[in-house]
Amino acid sequence: MKGHLTIHKIANGEEELVYDEDNVITSGFGWSLSHLYGLAGSQSITDFQIDRFQLGVSGHSGNQVSSTFELSGPLSSTAEYTGTGTDSNLHAPSANLFLTTTPGGEVIEEQVFAKIPFAKVTKIDDRSVRYTIFIDEDSCNNLQRDINGDNSLQDVSLNEIGLFVKNTRGKTDKDESVLAAYRYFSNITKTSDFGLVFRWTISFG
């Protein structure tokens, strides 16, 4: 399996390519597929779909390895995705993230994900699927973090993204999602002046 990600800025109806690189398919994707083929996970095929993503602000090149199982600094609330208004096009529910930390251990914690609408998942050919993620002008703006630990907030930029398998083990209380693909990218300070389009193609074979 392999993947490729492009990022475009959209302003005044025009697209500008700002990023174009291969991404990393993580071991979590293989773990999910082994559950699917081994009939060891969920009994619903829809639980094995990649249908959600996270954006983050602490990405680095060291995460560009298949063993990566989480984003370094994922957005931590629905408000960070959608803002305080009602104009955002993003839907960001809470979910459980399944983290594999050692061969014999696991950690589960609640994090926030944004959904990828089914209409934005496109079959390119028999071996390739494209996921289109649109971050509109009203979403993910003016992000801040307490970087120095002194309760003073500083502006931060988007610089990482991950795709997630919905619910590999078929949990019924909350989805338990697994990181399937990851990409660190150059800093983008998101404001209401522009939107972003991530086009992420996953190919098999």
Write the layout of secondary structure elements.
Blueprint: E1 2-11, E2 14-25, H1 27-37, E3 50-56, H2 78-82, E4 94-102, E5 105-112, E6 114-115, E7 121-125, E8 128-135, E9 144-145, E10 154-155, E11 158-165, E12 176-188, E13 195-203
Parallel strand pairs: 4-12
Antiparallel strand pairs: 1-2, 1-13, 2-12, 3-6, 3-11, 4-5, 7-8, 8-13, 9-10, 11-12
Describe the 3D structure.
The protein has 205 residues and is mainly beta. The protein has two helices and 13 strands. Strands 1, 2, 3, 4, 5, 6, 7, 8, 11, 12 and 13 form an eleven-stranded mixed β-sheet that branches. The protein has a two-stranded antiparallel sheet with strand order 9-10. The chain is globular and about 45 Å long. The protein starts with a strand and ends with a strand.
Which outline best applies? globular
What portion of the residues fall into strands of 2 or more residues?
over 45%
Could you tell me the mean pLDDT?
89
SSE run: EEHEHEEEEEEEEEE
Poorly predicted segments = none
Please give the share of residues in helix.
under 10%
- Gyration radius, in Å: 17 Å
The largest β sheet comes out as: 11 strands, mixed
What is the CA-CA span between the terminal residues? 6 Å
Number of DSSP strand runs: 13
Content-based structural category: mainly beta
* Count of DSSP H/I helices: 2
What attributes does this structure have?
globular, two-stranded antiparallel sheet, 11-stranded mixed sheet, 205 residues, 2 helices, mainly beta
